[in-house]
Amino acid sequence: MKLPTLKTKGKCCQISETPSNGLEKIVLVGNPNVGKSVLFNHFSNSYTIVSNYPGTTVEISKGDGTIAGKEYEIIDTPGMYSMLPITEEERVAQKYVLDEDAHVYLHVVDAKNLRRMLPLTIQLIEADVPLILVLNMMDEAEERGVEIDTQRLAQRLGIPVVSTVSTTGRGLKELEETIANYKPTQKHFIPNYGEEIESAIEKTVSSLNSEYRVAKRALAQLLLQKDLIAFEKIQRKEEEPERIGLIVDDSQAEHSEPLNLKIAIKRQDNVNEIIDSVMTQKEDREKAAEKKTHENENSISRRIDKLLIRPITGIPILLLILYFGLYKFVGVFAAGTVVDYLEGTLFGEQINPWVIANFNALVPYPVIQDLFVGEYGIFTQAITYAIALIMPLVGAFFIVFSIIEDTGYLPRLAMLIDRLFKKIGLSGRAVIPMVLGFGCVTMATMVTRTLETKRERVIASMLLALAIPCSAQLGVILGVLSFSSKALFIWAIVVFLELILIGFLASKVMSGEKPNFFVEMPPLRLPKISNVAIKTYSRMQWYFLEVLPLFIVASVVIWIGRLIGLFDIAVKLLAYPSQWIGLPAEAGVMFLFGFFRRDFGAAGLFDMYNAGMLTGVNIVVAAVTLTLFMPCIAQFMMTVKERGLKTAFAMAAFIFPSAFGVGFVVNYLLNYFGVIL
Ligand SMILES: Nc1nc2c(ncn2[C@@H]2O[C@H](COP(=O)(O)OP(=O)(O)OP(=O)(O)O)[C@@H](O)[C@H]2O)c(=O)[nH]1
Ligand SMILES: [Mg+2]
Predict the structure, then answer these.
(1) 480 pLDDT exceeds 90?
(2) Residue 211 belongs to domain with CATH number
(3) Quick one: which ligand is closest to 403's CA?
(4) Which atom of ligand 1 is nearest to the CA of 136?
(5) Are residues 168 and 219 in the same domain?
(6) Residue 104 is inside which H or E element, if any?
(7) What domain range is 32 assigned to?
(8) Is residue 450 in some structural domain?
(9) What whole-number distance in Å separates Cα of residue 119 and Cα of residue 487?
(10) By the 8 A CB rule, do 76 and 100 touch?
(11) Confidence (pTM)
(12) Based on the domain organization, do 354 and 436 belong to the same domain?
């Protein structure tokens, strides 16, 4: 067998090397969207985002927490479907199981889908990690008439089992006690994979000479399924990977089906047998009536699902959500009413004049005055933009976004646009990172690791950098363009067409596997106000901490640039492409801001628009050009981290000229057809 080589260019699979604080660890693992992060937030002093779609968590989160009087380090991992990972974030979780020493692992499962979740429990048991099974979402299981004999299940598996409803706190006391009193037991369930596979496992186990943290039986299964990390592990221990490779090849040769499929089927047989002995569906009359009500509910939610997924109804619904959620709430209400008041009245007429007057009186040096309260000053520009302009827009956007996330709409949207996405080299799976991009493109670039193929990851990162405006920028642009629905429409169509065109070309140019698409449909849930509030708050805080320093740095850089004359040169140089796309020379400043962050540039656009320096056509052209810029320095760094330096620079080299190119074409066409906005 040709030994697989592990490419670790992206930092996906590295566990952060933060020195451990010496506390015993509790690690949450399990399928995506089962409530791991809700439990993490309950147990630890940190917060991580909770949403109703699979793949919310893509990185390890850590926090400390006290359980039954003892302090532990609590660790949340990204969801994984099996110990044999497919996507990068699953790999992050797999590494954590293979490498960490923990007091206990909590395998969190969705109780209503136990049959699908238990195979991972069995794999964890076989890996011999200290384990507690948490049957979460018991409320939804009960609603569906599912009854689970937890005691019997615990007996069968040989590990503690606790049932919980993590969102209401039910069962969490018992879970805490179980964690505190946890002692590893010897008598675990051992699945039977049938003679042939068992003998292959045995042969592989006996050829492993070193000691490993996980049981050799589990490692052998990963090797038989040609898992890269497992091979890397044995290579590090100086085993004889070639010999093991031969055993794997021999075992595979004896089977007509791939070994991983065979193993998965056999494991499921074991699970089915256990489930049949511990799970019942309520059947008496009262319960039958209950079930009927539930079926009705089910058929209603199925009908809603169909409405959301079929293009003929799904697209109008999507447009309605965009119209009310984005245009009306973020564009008209937040960017219009709220920003007008904050920037125009509160900061413009009251706070800033007061600060400027007092600062100038206190510090009589024009150079220093310029740095803090001048035209591009730290207070008058950086802080004013961040608080009065960007914050209300980001806040409004995150409220809408958190509500959409919590309902479970995103996986439905993924189904709706899967077909369109296939044309641009992506699958419906990429909908989630692309939609997240409207929140923050930097964060979304990281989420592209949930995509299965490298080709898809590169195309998605590219399109994110190119054509998806983040919340702040979208807010400002919606605010500027809401003067005319025609202008907004032209902007949206141009950006959308550019996205489709570049995606289409990239998918033709880049070779690679075509992605498969399946998505798990979580039930539609009513968003919880508390969750929406805390999510919006934590995202705004995160955002604010990221943009404010950058805006301040930009003010300082511009100040230095003005002192040494570089600023004027840059503005003069940028005046050329600005004029080239029909804008006044002053617009060069806005593009200069745009290099720091697109939203900083968009804020500059907002100011020019308010000052009446631009025509309707100018505004559309400027908005299109800015949208097609690289989003911000943070996003660029993230692309370097996830996709590598070369890819990131190649993207930037393409994006900046193409942004001005498209601006040129739009300006030309609008003038040619004599469009007046
Ligand atoms: N009804 C009900 N909903 C729950 C329960 N636990 C979690 N949820 C909801 O399930 C969804 C997923 O929760 P998360 O904590 O984000 O799930 P996760 O396992 O961290 O998911 P990933 O990060 O995608 O792997 C959210 O909408 C939660 O509010 C529960 O016990 N009952
Ligand atoms: Mg999570």
Answers:
(1) no
(2) 1.10.287.1770
(3) 1
(4) 31
(5) no
(6) strand 104-110
(7) 24-180
(8) yes
(9) 54
(10) no
(11) 0.80
(12) yes
Q: Based on the structure, what is the number of domains in the chain?
A: 3
pLDDT tens-digit series, residues 48-61: 888 888 878 888 89
pLDDT class of 653 with cuts at 50, 70, 90: very high
Q: What are phi and psi of 652, to 5 degrees?
A: -60, -40
Q: So what's the pLDDT on residue 294?
A: 65
Q: Is the ipTM of this complex over 0.95?
A: yes
Ligand 1 and 163: CB distance under 6 A? no
Query: Which atom from ligand 1 is nearest to the alpha carbon of 108?
Result: 19
- 537-566 confidence digits (pLDDT tens): 988 887 778 778 878 888 898 899 999 999
207 carries a ligand binding annotation? no
Beta bridge partners of 632: 597
User: Is the distance from CB of 447 to CB of 12 less than 8 angstroms?
Assistant: no
| Domain assignment present for 294 | no
- Beta carbon of 430 within 6 Å of any ligand 1 atom: no
Inter-residue contact 595 to 554 (CB < 8 Å):
no
Tell whether residue 34 is among the known ligand binding residues.
yes
Q: Which ligand is nearest to the CA of 93?
A: 1
If you average pLDDT over residues 175-188, what whole number do you get?
A: 90
> Which residue has its alpha carbon closest to ligand 1 atom 3?
137
Q: Whose Cα sits closest to atom 27 in ligand 1?
A: 52
Q: What share of the chain is helix, strand, coil (3-state, %, to 5)?
A: 65, 5, 25
**78 annotated as a binding-site residue:** yes
In a domain, 305, yes or no: no
Question: Would you say 670 and 487 are in contact if contact means Cβ atoms under 8 Å apart?
Answer: no
Rounded Cα distance between 24 and 130, Å, is: 12
Q: Which of 142, 157, 180 is the C-terminal boundary of a domain?
A: 180
Three-point CA angle 380, 384, 389, nearest 5°: 145
Contact in structure between 55 and 432 (CB atoms under 8 Å): yes
- Whether the predicted pLDDT of 39 surpasses 50: yes
Pocket test for ligand 1, best of 44, 51, 80, 148 (most atoms within 8 A of CB): 51
Q: Amino acid identity of 268? A: Q
546 in the same domain as 398: yes
* Mutational pocket test of ligand 1: of 166, 402, 449, the residue with most ligand atoms within 8 Å of the beta carbon: 166
Give Cβ neighbours of residue 272 (< 8 Å, ≥ 6 apart). 115
What are the residues whose beta carbons fall under 8 Å from the beta carbon of 227, sequence distance 6 or more?
A: 84, 85
Q: Are strands 146-148 and 279-281 parallel, antiparallel or unpaired?
A: antiparallel
Q: How far apart are CA 670 and CA 677, in angstroms?
A: 10
